Amino acid sequence: MGRPARIDRDAVLGAALAIADAEGLDAVTMGAVAERLEVTPMALYRHVASKADLLDGLVERLLTELQVQPQRADAGWSEHLAAAARATRVSARRHPAVFPLLLQRPATTVSARRVRDAIEGALREAGVASDLVSQTERLVSTAILGFAVSEVAGRFARHSRRQLDADFERLLEWLGQLIESQTLH
Asked: Are residues 93 and 171 in the same domain?
């Protein structure tokens, strides 16, 4: 009988995220992750197939850490999407060095796609025509991710937090109008 695994996929992704948070995304290598976990680099390949798979796992980790539930249980689609958007912004602030990865890599893992699928479900609930759901999700997600990445990358550094909060709420209003324009009503 073989010895029990010392690590699992969750530990590998956690180590990669910690390295990215502390040292930047370029510091995330198979060797650095292995060193952090005190295993050989080959041990990682039981849990991630390649560096690309590791990066896809980071996308998954960022997306699945989002708390996408609105405060009220009876909330409708707009509150669900607004809660997801606000959680995205919080996550960007928590992981500024790695967050731009969400604009560079698609959601490919099963868990990451579930998050995207939940957004698409909210758009269907809103009444967005089925042939426009994927496009609307891409546009809405890109606008929210772009704002969040711009904020943590320093593009808006000369603006106060109060101004950025107001800008973000205005963006959510515009996106709500976009979604409404895509509905069958």
From this structure: yes
Beta bridge partners of 183: 128
Over the stretch 120-171, which tens digit does the pLDDT of each residue have? Answer: 988 998 999 999 999 999 999 999 999 999 999 999 999 999 999 999 999 9
pTM of the model: 0.85
For 19, other C-beta atoms within 10 Å of its C-beta total 21
Helix, strand or coil, per DSSP, at residue 65: coil
How many Å apart are CA 63 and CA 21, to the nearest integer? 15
Which domain CATH number covers 36? Answer: 1.10.10
Q: What sign results for the dihedral spanned by CA atoms 142, 147, 150, 151?
A: negative
Exposed, middle or buried, 92 (CB in 10 Å: 0-12/13-18/19+)?
buried
What is the residue range of 134's domain? 68-181
Residue 86 domain-assigned (yes or no): yes
How many domains are contained in the chain? 2
